[in-house]
Amino acid sequence: MLSAEDNDLICRVGPGTLMGNLMRQYWIPGVLSSELPAPDCTPVRTMLLGEKLIAFRDTGGRVGLIQDACPHRGASMFFGRNEEDGLRCVYHGWKFDVTGACIDMPSEPAESNFKNKVRTKAYKTFERNGAVWVYMGPLEVPPPLPDIEANIAAGYHTLAMEHDHNWLQVLEGTIDTIHAGFLHSGAARWQDAPEGSFQQAMLRERSAKFEVLNIDAGVTYGAHRPAAPGMEYWRVATFLFPFYGISPTGGSFQRGVPTTLTAAVPVDDDHTMYIHFISTKALEKYDLYPNTTGWYGRFNAPANSSNDYLLDRDLSARSQLNSGGPNFSGIPSVRHQDRAITGSMGHIYDRTHEHLGQTDLGIIRTRRRLLEAAKALDANGTVPPGVNDPESYRVRTGEIFLPEGANWVEETRELRKSPLQGPAIMAPV
Q1: pLDDT class for 285, splitting at 50, 70, 90?
Q2: Residues contacting residue 158 through CB under 8 Å, at least 6 positions apart
Q3: 3-state secondary structure of 117
Q4: Cα(278)–Cα(394) distance, rounded to whole angstroms?
Q5: What is the pLDDT of residues 37-61, one digit of tens each?
Q6: What's the burial of 93, exposed, middle or buried (CB within 10 Å: 0-12/13-18/19+)?
Q7: Topology of 27-135 in CATH?
Q8: Out of 1.10.3470, 3.30.70, 3.90.380, 3.40.1350, which CATH number does the structure's domain 149-411 have?
Q9: How confident is residue 421, by pLDDT bands cut at 50, 70 and 90?
Q10: What value, to the nearest 5°, has the Cα angle with vertex 334 and ends 326 and 265?
């Protein structure tokens, strides 16, 4: 259980907050490449860490992310004209390139050099495998990008969905592995699962014991329960700084089976962009409304809080625990089930009311590491975990059967390493 002070500290991400400052030390996947499909296309309103920004792709294909307010008199750059390697404010014609430099000021006299003295706030970007990464931190030369397999290796695509609640609830929903046997498959019968499968083991014994391990860039934890005689079933999941979760789905410890990763990117204190780096083999698609131009108009789903996430009570009534029914929660799709539950806690849940158990050990440790890192950065300028260590993100999770009493840390040590090879991908200067 967090204190009220720490709950506020860990959830708030706006400019000047401790957690917001922590987030700004890292590269953030802020925009999907698909949102900026061509040079000189329509600009996009984008909010990150409570800051209103405008994303655009210039004539040369570079992506810019600049402050919304024109530095002249505050008009929104969303209305700007994207043309000839810059975004031009339509109010007085001031034009800015992706670096934030003012490259034209037609409203001033021709002999004026005023444009050379004006800049707009602009953040460095780097585009990789369907995502535009943004560095909002204080360094002139940013750190390397994290070596996240699901955003580097071939055969992945990037999806997004907006959640109308705090980023920490979204993250904790991702890294909470015990709920899979209830929320997502509570009605499923172990007798109907393939013999000897991971699914059968999870459904036969829905409780588990947790063990937690600190790693360089976060936390890894294993949930274990009895399986075949003399064997245990382990589900190993991971949190990576500052907002990544890797779930143990798909048996990804098997070589050739790709792992996936999700990012709970804070839009502001009350909204989160859930970004999913997923294998194209998974063929997962999100049912979404077309994007609108509002600050919260991106990647919204028809199943939402206004319609109780399309909850079907009749469907749920036919699906008691272990009944073999069609849908335990009555909410369609795993993604919407997660959104409904984490959203039902409110925009920012008051964690002083919690009663945490043994299966919450991974969440408890994750919160502790986040708070320690944010406070150390604020007090001493301590560089947070993983910022300068991109290889620490070369992590996998998965499911495995091990002999009863085996040391899961040692048995999975090599399996938990991503197969990525080669040097880190450095950020542009």
Answers
A1: confident
A2: 29, 32, 33, 34, 129, 130, 131, 151, 275, 276, 277, 278
A3: helix
A4: 15
A5: 999 999 999 999 999 999 999 999 9
A6: middle
A7: Rieske Iron-sulfur Protein (2.102.10)
A8: 3.90.380
A9: low
A10: 170
